[in-house]
Amino acid sequence: MAIKIYKPTTPGRRKSSVLSSDDITKKKPEKSLLKGLKKRSGRSKGKISVRHRGSGARRRYRIIDFKQNRYDEVATVIAIEYDPNRNSRIALIQYEDGKKSYIIAPNNTVVGDTVTSSMKKIEIKSGNRMPLMYIPAGSGVYNIEMLPGRGAQLARSAGTVAVLQAIEGKYAQLKMPSGEIRLIPKTAHASIGQVSNPDYRLVRWGKAGRMRHRGIRPTVRGKVMNPVDHRHGGGEGAQPIGLKRPVTAWGKPALGVKTRKKKKPSNSLIVKRRKKK
User: Fold this and answer.
1) Structural domain includes residue 243
2) pTM score, whole prediction
């Protein structure tokens, strides 16, 4: 997959780039694996919980099989598709009985490849899925379960990969894409390899219009607002915020403040915190 750059015929084109779609083999999604997607615009129970969300292109949800619990059945990749709801590619797979499902496509997978999920040790091949205790140390994995049977929750975005460092006792030690080292039950499942579309992070969006298509609205600094709208606002010209530390629009500490709960039960499973930005 490659980044495509156009001639700078307009200011937006000059600064933007797009991903090549040469790897996509099927344009229309599988109807049986679609469902409607209601827009919530960053709202929870009618109240804004995430600011600067709204509008965006209309899309439908592709039902992804994150559990892949049809064990020891060989599935064949019959198409690689674009998914508007995530930044990785998705693969349409078909089992021997004809049933189809979507999975997150591993990197460099092509039509005709086979993937298998199992509760026991199987071939170490990109896309195959098995418990962590059967995967060799040093292997790259993605689509990782946090608890056995719950389905993949970790390392699912484009180009991500976690490294299995060791198996100790009941747990597997994983180095996550963020740099965090944490313990996961060794009976939890993970897929071998790396998530597809690793070049996604290199895309330059170029203009505000492309962000609006993604459902992201403009963000305005609190410093340039009026005092009634933000704690950072007010003053003549470019003035400092006049506070000891940055705060949110509602007065809570911001920028660099730890938000993880101190007494969260899973804190004991984190061996090393993620690297600071």
Assistant:
1) no
2) 0.90
